[in-house]
Design a protein that fits this description.
By secondary structure, this protein is of the alpha+beta class. The protein is 50% helix and 17% strand. It contains 26 helices and 25 strands. Strands 1, 2, 3, 4, 7, 8, 9, 10, 11, 12, 13 and 14 form a twelve-stranded mixed β-sheet that branches. It is elongated.
Length: 815
């Protein structure tokens, strides 16, 4: 068998070398399809398929609160966490975490790091053991225990150079001294949903809450992860957690209403962003369509080549070769061709991965690494075998179905190729056109969606705006008056800088998705039904915020300086809020309550223009804005500074930073960016998806056009005698042109019809990725159908025009 295989390989290699043009075209086609698939698969595998880098990750689950109208990602109440931790028998360990961004003091200043407050047993849940020192104990988690901290491997290396004697030293965090008890190993993961982003630059401290005091807290503040007991299924754990939650509802209705439920799922589901998952699978499906089109093209090439080898195959059959042996030989050539194409594709994939990684959105990069590893290599080999069989099997089987008597005649080249082979080639062309249309429609919908997103009025002016995040350490700014004084004086100082037109502070920056969500009660109105509560974002701002950001005031007025710096009960809402809750009436003077419990009434004094948010699924939110000092919340520690400049905002960065630090040289300043850069970052994920899908669609269109052209050119070659006879009998060149073009156009239109039906079904999967575009947008479907038909017509016209130039005398002598 090895000798036969070696013989087939040598013969196949000789045949491929004998026709270098055919081999080069086939290899290039396959390398494009396989290389693009390998590159996108490396993204899908790195982000979606690779398991979390923890011990037995299949046993890790996330536990969240499920609430009508709010999905399954809400934090849990303390009482829920304690009940699950102490009573769940299906769980080996249960722990809670709360992300935070503390300030760590170093000799050269203060730096803000990523951190988390965790309950004891958290690292047991995650399956991570300290590299140095020890883990948190129940004693560390008591509310009166001395403060302790664990460091990430990266922070340990950066701050202490990897010194082993780090344990038992102290670290100043937010103005307090913490004893370092351990260092975590390098996990190599910085995704969301795991508490403090293990493996990233960060710290972990115990919660240290008084469990007796927080039991009755109605707020939901903690996210919970757990590890299943060995042999326990997720369904069993869900059933037990639902039973425990039902008991909590019955025993504590004041903190656990009937609308609240519990939801548990694999932790990986909370790590990977759902919209990113959907976009990646769409791209992977698109690039696989490109591979199918490439296979159809190569199959057509092999069918044409098989027709030319009829005499050879007939002669070998006559001399005793079995059909199995001939099919094996032809499949060996196909597999050899696909392996060469896969090798070239692997080299192309290296370049593509580098390009994709460079432009990939940050939200994708945070979820996992992208690299060409053994898994991707195995996938590429699988593609090589699969494509070899896909494009090689039908031509190999068809090539053995020859009429030996006819094939061995000197005039064996008949007027036209066999009908089964014609039908197969036609079916492959129709398949290419259908797949290309699906890709073109999908990319067209995304392109129109992205164009709509860019055309929508932002609602603010992003030009000449500098932004930065300021966070006041609690140790030095514990009193509200200290925080008010700092921000008041900072704004006054920054406004005096040359080149600064205005400055303001705000809790959440536009285009970043930052903000808080609160319940709302409107005076004189019935409660908003469960599941219909608005998503309200905005937050505390200073008096000049709307002028600085270029947000138009539609009704009423902005806040006064007195309202901003003294406790006030006024509020400003946006147009979306006013249109929903005060349709056909003036909202100015109306009163609302915002927040949990029984907050004071706030009077609406202004309505401002809407502005868009990142992503196409929540383009405009209902929003409200408070004065910095208000009756609902105490003055916040963390705020964003926005500065409107006369010229390039980046040129004033250092001057603004220096002015801010005049009041506090250790103040951590983070996220320094222009608003134009933030806006571009917010649209980066959409642009990336549109660009990739559009590239695949153009590649599919090119391959489909080549496929149609190849079939028509081969058909003309096969029909030279027939066309010569038609011309000799008086057929005009126009009739011959229409005959040949009509044949090719018929195949293309069949493909268009199949593609339209397929597109109507598949584009529904893209609904969440679109803004302002229906999944059945008639304009996109019409334009794409016309474009593809025009390209098909052009691909048919060139060989048809050549057919009209046939000399009847030469054609009648042709074999």
């Amino acid at each position: 068998m090895l000798e036969i295989l070696w013989q087939d390989l040598r013969y196949g290699a000789r045949m491929l070398l004998k026709q270098p043009g055919f081999t080069l075209i086939a290899v290039l086609t396959l390398s494009l399809g396989i290389g693009a698939n390998a590159a996108i698969f490396s993204v899908v595998r790195g982000v979606l398929l690779r398991p979390l880098p923890f011990s037995e990750p299949e046993r890790l689950i996330g536990i969240r609160e499920s609430k009508v109208g709010e999905g399954h990602s809400n934090p849990l109440a303390w009482r829920s966490f304690f009940a699950f931790r102490d009573q769940a028998q299906t769980l080996e360990a249960v722990a809670a975490y709360l992300n935070w961004n503390p300030d760590v003091e170093r000799d050269d200043g203060t730096v803000q790091v990523i951190g988390a407050r965790v309950s004891h047993g958290y690292f047991k849940v995650m399956g991570v053991r300290p590299l140095l020192g020890r883990d948190f104990t129940p004693e560390d988690d008591k509310h009166d225990a001395p403060p302790t901290v664990m460091l990430s491997h990266e922070l340990w290396q950066q701050m202490y150079g990897g010194a082993a004697e780090i344990v038992d030293q102290t670290l100043r965090i937010d103005g307090k001294s913490f004893a370092i008890i351990g260092v975590l190993p390098p996990v190599g993961f910085n995704g969301q949903g795991v508490g403090g982003q293990i493996g990233w630059r960060g710290i972990w401290t115990p919660f240290q809450v008084n469990e007796a005091k927080v039991q009755n807290n109605p707020g939901r503040a903690v996210r919970v992860n757990a590890r299943l007991r060995a042999g326990v299924t997720l369904e069993q754990a869900r059933a037990e957690l639902e039973t425990l939650m039902a008991g909590l509802k019955q025993a504590y209705p004041e903190t656990h209403s009937s609308e609240v439920g519990v939801y548990a799922t694999a932790l990986k589901d909370y790590v990977v962003d759902p919209n990113a998952q959907r976009a990646m699978w769409v791209l992977f499906g698109a690039v696989f369509f490109v591979l199918l089109i490439a296979c159809a093209n190569v199959a057509n090439l092999l069918l044409a080549r098989a027709a030319e080898r009829e005499k050879e195959i007939a002669l070998r059959t006559t001399l005793g070769a079995s059909r199995f042996g001939i099919v094996r030989q032809l499949l060996t050539e196909s597999l050899l061709l696909s392996v060469i194409g896969a090798t070239a594709g692997w080299l192309l994939a290296h370049w593509l991965v580098a390009a994709v990684s460079k432009f990939m959105p940050d939200v994708w990069q945070r979820m996992g690494g992208v690299r060409l590893d053994a898994g991707v290599f195995s996938f590429t080999l699988f593609l090589a075998v699969l494509t070899g069989l896909l494009f090689g099997l039908a031509p190999a089987l068809g090539a053995t179905k020859v009429n030996l008597n006819e094939a061995l005649k000197s005039g064996a080249r008949a007027i036209s190729a066999s009908r089964p082979r014609q039908r197969l080639r036609g079916a492959l062309v129709a398949l290419e056109v259908a797949l290309a249309l699906v890709l073109l429609v999908g990319s067209g919908l995304l392109l129109k969606s992205f164009a709509n997103l860019r055309r929508v009025e932002l609602g603010f002016d992003p030009d000449n705006l500098l932004t930065m995040s300021l966070r006041l350490p609690n140790s030095r700014y514990g009193e509200p008056a200290q925080r008010v004084s700092f921000f008041q004086q900072t704004l006054a100082n920054v406004k005096q800088l040359p080149g600064v037109e205005s400055a303001a502070i705000c809790f959440s920056l536009l285009m970043t998705g930052e903000g808080a969500t609160d319940p709302v009660v409107i005076e004189g109105r019935p409660p908003i039904p469960k599941g219909e509560e608005p998503v309200l974002r905005g937050g505390s701002v200073s008096a000049d915020y709307f002028r600085t950001m270029g947000i138009a005031i539609r009704q009423g007025r902005a806040f006064t300086e007195q309202e901003v710096w003294q406790e006030s009960n006024v509020i400003i809402v946006n147009e979306a809020f006013a249109e929903r809750f005060f349709p056909n009436e003036d909202p100015i003077g109306k009163r609302i309550k915002v927040g949990l419990g029984d907050p004071p009434w706030s009077t609406i004094v202004g309505v401002v223009a809407n502005h868009i948010q990142p992503g196409v699924d929540n383009l405009v939110w209902e929003e409200m804005f408070y004065p910095y000092v208000n009756t609902a919340d105490p003055p916040l520690w963390g705020m964003n500074l926005v500065v409107k400049t006369a010229g390039d905002p980046a040129a004033l960065t250092q001057s603004v930073v220096n002015e801010v630090r005049k009041l506090d040289r250790l103040l951590p300043i983070a996220k320094i960016k222009t608003m134009r850069a933030l806006t571009e970052d917010a649209l980066r994920a959409d642009r990336f998806s549109v660009g990739l899908l559009g590239s695949f669609a153009m590649l599919a269109l090119l391959l489909a056009a080549i496929g149609i052209y190849g079939v028509m050119a081969y058909s003309v070659t096969q029909r030279i005698q027939e066309l010569g006879i038609r011309l000799a009998l008086g057929a005009t060149r126009g009739k011959v042109l229409r005959l040949v073009v009509g044949q090719g156009l018929k195949l293309a239109l069949i493909g268009v019809a199949v593609g339209l039906i397929t597109s109507l079904a598949l584009t529904r999967l893209m609904k969440a990725l679109l803004f302002g575009v229906s999944t059945t947008d008639p304009t996109i479907f019409a334009v794409i159908t016309s474009l593809l038909t025009a390209v098909a017509l052009l691909a048919c016209f060139v060989p048809a025009w050549r057919a009209t130039k046939v000399d009847p005398i030469v054609a009648l002598r042709h074999e």
